[in-house]
Design a protein that fits this description.
By secondary structure, the protein is an alpha/beta fold. The protein is built from three helices and five strands; from the N terminus they run αβββαβαβ. A five-stranded mixed sheet has the order 3-2-1-4-5. The longest helix is centred in the N-terminal third of the chain and has 17 residues. The radius of gyration is 36 Å and the shape is elongated. It starts with 20 loop residues before the first helix and ends in a 7-residue tail after the last strand. 7% of the residues are buried.
Length: 140
């Protein structure tokens, strides 16, 4: 029995396998560069907190309640607002005050969302800054 070390013919056949070593080397270098350039993870949030104790409130904040009934009726402190311009006039008066009162928006569970979104959009557009939704527990 004899062992064939090379090809017996004069022609050499092309190699059918790809040399993977250079590609692996390049990939390892890229991974190392990626690991080096990733910024350090910062798990804290820097806040500029005031120093000392805040002064006690001098007076209770004024609260304006806007109720939106199930049929889209808007009530301003339990008084029916006839139309959108009347509501906007009241919101303009609130926004014009130096110390704005808090506006509590209390929508009914069955009201169409577009009515509530319209009230909130009007308040934002007219410059009311202290507005919040009240009664969210009914939606859970």
């Amino acid at each position: 029995m004899s062992m064939s070390v090379g090809s017996s013919g004069g022609e050499s056949e092309p190699m059918m396998e790809m040399n993977m070593t250079p590609m692996i080397d390049v990939m390892l270098v890229l991974i190392i560069l990626l690991i080096i350039t990733i910024p350090k993870a910062n798990h804290s949030v820097n806040l500029n907190m005031p120093v000392g104790t805040p002064p006690p409130p001098t007076k209770e904040p004024v609260v304006v309640t806007i109720d939106v009934d199930f049929d889209g009726t808007i009530l301003w402190d339990n008084v029916v607002v006839p139309d959108r311009p009347a509501l906007e006039n009241k919101l303009i008066a609130v926004a014009a005050q130096a110390d704005q009162p808090e506006v509590h928006l209390r929508p009914n569970k069955l009201v169409n969302y577009s009515v509530v979104a319209g009230v909130m959009a009007s308040a934002q557009r007219l410059g009311v800054t202290k507005i919040g939704l009240v009664g969210n527990e009914q939606f859970q």
